[in-house]
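## retry 2 of 3
previous attempt timed out at serialization; input unchanged, resubmitting
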Amino acid sequence: MSRFYLTTAIDYVNSRPHLGTAYEKIAADVIARYKRLCGVETRFLMGNDEHSQNVFKKASELRLDPLAYCDQMEREFRRTWQRLDVSFDDFIRTTEPRHKAGVMALAERIHAAGDIYEGVYEGWYCVGCEAFKQEKDLVDGKCPLHLTKPQWIREKNFFFRLSKYQQPLLEHFASHPDFLRPDERRNEILRLLEGGLEDISVSRAGQAWGIPLPFDRASVVYVWFDALINYASAVGLGGDTTLFEKWWPADLHIIGKDITRFHTVIWPAMLMSAELPLPRQVFGHGFMTFRGQRMSKSLGTAIDPIEAADRFGPDPLRLFLVKEIAFGGDGDFSWERYDERYNTDLANNLGNLVSRVATMAHRYREGRLAPAAGASDQLVRVAEQAVTDYRRAMETYAIHDAAGAAYRLIDATNEYIAATSPWAMAKDRSAANRLSQVLFDSAEAIRLAAVLLSPITPGSSREILRRVGVTPDALDTLNWDRDGHWRADGERVLALDGPLWPRKETIVTDSSTTPSPEPGTPAPGTAPGAAPPGNRITIEDFMKVELRVAKVLAAEPVPKSKKLLKLNVDVGTEQRTLVAGIAEAYQPEALVGRTVVIVFNLQPATLMGVESNGMVLAASPEGGKPMLLSFDEPPPPGARVR
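## retry succeeded, writing output
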């Protein structure tokens, strides 16, 4: 494919964007960045839908001219997208002259085809949706999206002969099975088409805020008819023929599942009438919910994406939304889960891996790494499979699976370091070449993982690549053919800097998710962790507790428990099984290869049917989740902790 034209839904500007809106833009940005990484000329369009009566109403409430209000809101939306590092190539507003030209041109073509006629509309109209509703669309007499009763209106309108295109649309779906994805959305629209279509209004009478109909200046183009045309007007419809011929049709429309009918029934029928090519594909993603409720401005369940990005930065938010939510399905957001995944995926996993390898490279090889022996076949195989899985996922827009493929390589690298123990090799002169190779392979795996993650976490990936020795000119010209595979040669000069993502204590914003106090929580007014003088122990008592270093060999959930994990650990002289109450803070796979501290001489205890031979030490911040102890350089298993 020589070029790729990608669009998102344009947004009403009657209020600022919320996190659900941002999810769509971030997902589209990931796809656009991936296409550019692959060398495909890409055009990524976003924009604002400004001819809404809700926008006009909001401007009136603020005593502003509607266009002045829209100018103000454009700055708000652009500020949000900039904060989230969304890399659109074009931003269209429906009040722009180029859009007006496109709407007028398409309306004229449809009218000339005989598919627009004058009539009277009488029926339900949802002000929130700015859409006409049939009785069957309502739930208990209310709009299912806004939970409000629609208005009954009667007015002179111009209508589009949508019913004429029922069969052509069915034929298009049959001959283009991937036209609408995922399959759940496709099946919904097919059922709608098979049930028959009614003609729809394309105008509103008695309103001045909008684009006048070219054949009746007393009416304005209905906002949805107007808005859909932005995808074509942005690439020259009605104006720049050369630009239009290059970029139309769009390769992918990314939209919310609530507007698939407009984009896969009305919009293609309009294009059929105008004898213009249809978009190649439409993807209807799911809703973002907050505490189980749809994230919506009108319902009061919206989360400010800038607030979410300011918590840890834009990349942790982008990774969370992409990795946590299967693209196409619904996803629920909570501050507690967001904090947990930040610590698990970034602070404890990827960030710690980058720091460990850089530290060992400087400690043992003065920061310069080069291959000295054969690369690890196992790590190379994992890397090659991760690349294959990643490409397959990205090409089918399964961006959550692409993130998962990158993290399988990250997890494998952590396991590789734990299995090879570079700190032990450093004490053996005969293992010098092997140590160099292990560190080189680890740095190379990090480099490749950062390339895979670059469409998802662009700023952080760039910083990781810099730290593992990618030169500035290569950073500016990342290319899949050159950078998206394992490299077995070349010297790397690693940078040693501070932590990429410092671990954060869990911050609970929503009071309904605040944990109940655990047994032993200090009474009010008592400093956490402070022991009354009479309860202090002697050094002799303390020395009775035998603390030892252990390496986690395997980890799995304990059945029927939300808090317990079963760990198999190496304590130097033996392997033990123990149970740890850390499941709410750590994923089992992230623990494998990790060095922990255990109470070695604790009597066995049976928890949930599993005998535990020891106890893992962890800090327990007040109101937060347990935090395992960590080391700058892990000691060998079995080492005493005093």
